[in-house]
Amino acid sequence: MSSFRIISSDDHIAEPPDLWTGRSDSKFKDRVPRIVRLDDGGDWWVTDGIVGQTMASASKTGERFEGNENLTIVDQFEQVRPGAYDPDERVKDMDLDGVDVSVIYPNQGLMLYAVPDTELLNSVLVTYNDWLAEFCGAYPKRLKGIAMINLDDVRWGVKELERCHGIGLVGGMVPVYPPQGRSYDLSEYEPFWEAADQLNMPISLHVDTNRKGLRGQETTEQPETGSARVQMLQPDTVVNMVTWIKTTLAKMIMGGVFERFPTLQIGSVEHELAWVPYFLERLDYVYTQRFRMDHWHRFKEDMLPSDYLHRNVFLGFQEDGLGIRLRDIIGVDSLQWGSDYPHQESTFPRSRQILEEILADCSEDEKAKIAGGNAASLYHFN
Fold this sequence. Notes:
TIM Barrel; 34% helix; globular; single chain; 13 strands; 382 residues; 13 helices; alpha/beta
């Protein structure tokens, strides 16, 4: 058994049912996220009439190893594992799983980028970020939070990133896919990239966070109840989630963002890895072999697009054995493992065993980097 340090670079919390109703600005008290028990018997988050996550996303943690028949699309808060919302219990679960440090993303928060009202969304995110800082503050050496940032108003996003840095959060996340017509290579975002760079705050692009609901959903009748009130994510969309991250990264790379901000760090989180080699090849082929439109950016540096991905983009994964076999092409220094605790598909409580299996053909140095060393370097963990 290897002795490498394990840092989960992609974990989640389950927001308490009263997080927003008990803390939010009274101006929005009737519109903030709240738990509603629908006629399917499950507890669902509803924000300003928009149905988001079900509690099942944070329940039955680890039960997939006992058979998929135990998993369900609906559940109630009482079934959520306490470590998802209680820092004391969280650390116990980390010890059980052999995880030293947990980098924490939201659960219901992922769905909040579908809320179209900018002012409401900003208020809700401030409340979440404050609570997350308190949660991580219980064990600051082991729990590290990622702030939620909205970039509808870039100046607001800069101020919130600066504030979150001040309260101890270690990075920020923005929608994996921005609103149509506002791609991240546009000049309006430059102040935000500059702030993230200067603050040493890596910025994550987490799966399933498209702005304003561009998520590939369809209204589907639920078999249990016949209700069509919930926008259900479709399996073809889950299979093709890499569409959004590839489009965003291609825009940023080919648009010269990383040429202008050479030390900025942007992350692909929970999109796995095996798509990356083909993406790298396509970036360079288009840049060097295809016709060039007058408005296409040309690098002033002697660099290829793939060089910027290797230098400026970190890549999170959970169980992508094929991606690990392609690690020499992707770049070992970019790879960061995450358990996805407490989601049903999490590797908890078998994370060390699964890591040993996935990394079996890696050298000890590669294992140490992928399992925790790369994340420790990125976030400056001791």
